[in-house]
Amino acid sequence: MTAQPNSTEARDMAYHLHSYTNPRKLEREGPLIIDRGEGIHVFDNSGKRYIEGMAGLWSVAVGFGEKRLVEAARSQMARLPYYHTFSQKSHGPVADLAEKLVGMAPVPMSKVYFANSGSEANDTAIKLVWYRSNALGKPEKKKIISRIKGYHGVTALSASLTGLPNNHRSFDLPFPNILHTTCPHYRTGAEPGQDELAFSRCCAEELEALILEEGPETIAAFIGEPVMGAGGVIVPPEGYWAAIQDVLRKYDILLIADEVICGFGRTGNMFGSETFGMRPDIMTLSKQLSSSYQPIAALMINDNVYEPIANEADRIGALGHGFTASGHPVAAAVSLENLAIIEEKDLVGNVRRLAPHFLGRLNALERHPLAVEARGVGLIGALELEAADGAAAGATGARVGAILQRNGLICRNIGDSIAFCPPMIITAAEIDEMFDIVEASLEQLG
Ligand code: PLP
């Protein structure tokens, strides 16, 4: 692409190192500059309209241009634009949000800690688990089990939890105390003839074998997303979380539910933990917490986690952890208003009501000759495609992603899977519009 001199594109290409982007490809092709958003749509700087089929990055639950969130930010900005939560300081919005989240929790939780990203929330969760083990006089209990294809972020510690090679390769990760167990993808993991329940038992047996091999007394926690998102939208098979939790209970291992994508309605209940019968000790939250209008994340911990940590911090003098923007007042005020909108508009009910239609249209895509599998739950799903004639892994997904974008739909290609996660305000007609574009685009693929 030859960008106009001094255009946004040209300056972005010259100065901006992008996330999750091949820098050389960016230098050749230039960026797509998104200029504004309204409802389920965003518009680029030429005025072209796109359906945001991924709600940004699985996050803009209430859609773009929500004036109530603009007003919540403006009025908090005018009253108290910043304050911190170190050294016994606090403010109204963060206290209100902590109370609100504890009240919403699907299992008893006692405290909320605030961070700025899902990565920081997961990083903090692991640090608190280690702190707790030391507090309990079990310094050997430090290993964390995560899963192949799980996604938990990109800080050095959360990237170690992430079970995707791209997040480790050339970064000298993962850290040694982080182990990865089986990915619960039924289609690729099950033996021929094995039903979902049997496959789930098999995943739990593999987890137990890893625990026994490492020594149960060395394992502190297991972390998992209720539904794997960035690993390709992998919905757990029947009985999976029940079988996993049986093993964790047997060996006194904490469960961390990474609800960064599933939290606040995505799977048809307020939390993915409810949809899949999980009873976590720690929950990490972000994205739909503020609909990403402000950067914020939270982790909720139960008494079993909080009490030893509080005792240890009391003994030492203070908890040696905190971000300058932990519990930022503007982010907290926006989150409170965002949660009010989700509740008042019954967006979780909307997900539940629209899920059969969304999943019906998604599953119908399996008729395409290149389709391998459609999978989803609530308003999150993916279509996996076969690599077309000798194409490298991921090339077909990238091609489809580019065609969709040309046709006015932004989705996320994950390898050869195309992920869908539209804003939760979407209507049935808009779902049809979205999948009509997908069908037409797949025809153009040939
Ligand atoms: N956990 C999950 C399940 C995620 O999907 C993500 C991001 O996509 C993260 C953690 C990391 O969040 P962030 O990008 O805000 O650091």
TrEMBL record:
InterPro entries: Aminotrans_3, Aminotrans_3_PPA_site, PyrdxlP-dep_Trfase, PyrdxlP-dep_Trfase_major, PyrdxlP-dep_Trfase_small. GO terms for biological process: biotin biosynthetic process; gamma-aminobutyric acid metabolic process. GO terms for molecular function: adenosylmethionine-8-amino-7-oxononanoate transaminase activity; pyridoxal phosphate binding. The keyword Phosphoprotein does not apply. Its cofactor is pyridoxal 5'-phosphate. It holds the Pfam family Aminotran_3. Gene3D superfamilies: Aspartate Aminotransferase, domain 1 (3.90.1150.10), Type I PLP-dependent aspartate aminotransferase-like (Major domain) (3.40.640.10). Keywords: Aminotransferase, Pyridoxal phosphate, Transferase. Belongs to the class-III pyridoxal-phosphate-dependent aminotransferase family. PANTHER family: ADENOSYLMETHIONINE-8-AMINO-7-OXONONANOATE AMINOTRANSFERASE. This is Aminotransferase class III-fold pyridoxal phosphate-dependent enzyme. The lineage of its organism: Bacteria, Pseudomonadati, Pseudomonadota, Alphaproteobacteria, Hyphomicrobiales.
